[in-house]
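WARN retry 2 of 3 for item q-0093 after timeout on previous attempt; input resubmitted unchanged.
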Amino acid sequence: MTIHYPTPASSLPDVHFTWNDADGNVIDFSSGWTFRMTIGRPPNAAVITKTSGIVGSATSPNLTVIWNPNELITLTPGVWYFQITAIYGPSGGKQREMLGSLRIDQAVLA
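OK item q-0093 returned
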């Protein structure tokens, strides 16, 4: 999945994902899960790590990323990559990972 945003990225709409298990069923993220999203350009370290504002639910879309104002303002135009890690349980039990890209487009109008 590629997400497109204009720059400057000061006020962004939420992103909704439907994350399925290996059998194609929507994963129930409504309780017991925590989430971490990292954004960067490999092989460099992540420039953004997000652990709040990621909300799971039981039905599709079962994962919503809520951006704070100016949260992505440091990203320059171009393609960035994200990884979302879903962790079940307080001791960091079962983990799932989703990879994707984020495109920040140069603003046409200032």
